[in-house]
Amino acid sequence: MASDFEGKKLVAIGGASGMGLKTAQNVIEKGGSAVIIGRPGQKLDDAVANLSRSGSAYAIAADLSNWEQVVEAQRQLVQSHSDATLLVNSAGFFLPKPFLDHEVADYDSYHDLNRSTFFLTQTVVRGMIAGGQGGAIVNVGSMWAHQALAVTPSSGYSMAKAGLHALTHNLAIELAGEGIRVNAVAPGVTDTPLFAKVFPPDQLKGALEQLSGLMPLGRTGTPQDLASTIAFLLSSESSWTTGAIFNVDGGIMAGRN
C-alpha cells in the first residue's frame, strides 16, 4: 500500500485524536502527508508535533461549532492544501440523552457539526476536481445510524450520523465522473476519546466492558481497527468501491450476544 500514499496529502477533519489521528499516522508512514483540522489547543499541537516526527503534517485550528473558524479553515485549505486528494471526516461527539430530554442546543450541536463537515468537504472536493487526479473520501458514520441501543438513547446523534451516511451515497454518485470515490465506515463501540466524554473516568472501563459484551467478537474496537479499514478505502486496493458503508463493529450488525 506504500505506493498508494506516496506523495499524497490527506485532510483529516477531527484528526487530532482517535481514528482520524491513526489514519493520518498510517498515511504518513506510507509516504504521504496529512493536514489535521481540530479544535485549537494543546491536543492539536501535540498531534501534529508527533506526526511530524514521521513525515509532513500540518495543523488547521478550527472549532467546527464556530462558523467563522470554519470559513477561515476553508480559506487555509484553498490557499495551502488544494492539492489534497484524500479526505477523512472523523469529527464527532457522542452524548446519549433520551429523546424527550433533548433541547434545541443539543440538536443544534449535531447540526452545526454536519454543516461544517458538509462545507469543508465541498472545499476539499473543489481542489480534487481542479487537480484532475481524482480522490478518495471516507466518512466516519456509526452503528447508531443503523440501529438504536436502549442502553444509549441517541436520537440526535443517530439522526446526524444517518445524514452522513446519506451524504456518502449522494457524493458517490455525483463525484464518480470526477474519479472521486466516497465511502464510509460505521463503527461499533470503539475505545476512543469520544467515549471518554460520555462516562466519568472511574466508570469508563466498566461501561466499555459492559458494551463489549454485546459484540459477537467479544471486545470493543480500537482506533487502529477503524484506521485499517479507512486506509483500505482510501487506497487503490478499493478502486472499484464507492458508495459503500462498511460495518466495522465487532459483528454487532449481524447480531448481538
The CATH superfamily is NAD(P)-binding Rossmann-like Domain
Low-pLDDT parts are none
Name the CATH architecture: 3-Layer(aba) Sandwich
Helix percent band: 40-55%
Please describe the biggest sheet, giving its number of strands, its sense, and whether it closes into a barrel: 7 strands, parallel
The total tally of domains equals 1
% residues in beta strands: 5-15%
Compute the number of helices.
9
Order of helices and strands: HEHEHEHEHEHEHHHE
Broad shape: globular
Assembly state of the chains shown: single chain
Average residue pLDDT: 94
Provide keyphrases for this structure.
7-stranded parallel sheet; 257 residues; 46% helix; single chain
Walk me through what this model shows.
There is one protein chain. This protein has 257 residues and is α/β, with parallel strands linked by helices. The chain has one domain (2-248): Rossmann fold, CATH 3.40.50. It contains nine helices and seven strands, in the order H-E-H-E-H-E-H-E-H-E-H-E-H-H-H-E. It has helices at residues 2-5, 18-29, 42-52, 67-80, 104-131, 155-175, 193-196, 201-212, 223-234, and strands at 9-13, 33-38, 57-61, 86-89, 135-140, 180-187, 245-248. Strands 3-2-1-4-5-6-7 form a seven-stranded parallel sheet, with helices on both faces. Helix 6 links the parallel strand 5 and strand 6. Helix 2 packs across helix 9 and helix 4 (67-80) packs parallel to helix 5. The model has no long low-confidence stretch (mean pLDDT 94).
